Amino acid sequence: MSGMNAVGWFDIYVEDLTRAVAFYETVFARKLEPIGDPTGESQMMSFPADMSACGAGGALTKSAHASPGAGGTVVYFSAEDCAVEEARVTAAGGTVLRPKFSIGDYGWVTLCQDTEGNIFGISSMK
Fold first, then answer.
1. CB 19 within 8 A of CB 25
2. Is the pTM of this model over 0.85?
3. 3-state secondary structure of 19
C-alpha cells in the first residue's frame, strides 16, 4: 500500500437523500453530483472529488444494505477553518455536538450530527 492513502472512498448512508443533499450542500457550500451505481441497488450523490489528488472521494448513499446512525465510523471533512462550516450546521437542520476544539499540533475539529443521525467531523489547521 505504499504511496496510497488509507481511505480511497467513503459512503455516508442516508434515509432521505434529498434532505441529506440539501444539508451537506448548505454546510459545505458545494454542489453534490449524481453518480451511478453499477448494481442499480443504490441512489448516490457524490461530493466533488479529484480522484488523482490526495484524500478520499465519497458520496451520500441510499441503500437497502446499510442505514445511517450514530456510533459507527466518523468521517472528517477538511476545511480551511472548521468554524465556518460549523456555523452553517444548525441552520441546515443538523446539530453541533462539540464546537470547534483544539487537537494540539494537528489543528482543530468540530463534531456535528447531520439530518440523518450520522456523526461527522470537520477538521482544519486554523
1. no
2. no
3. helix
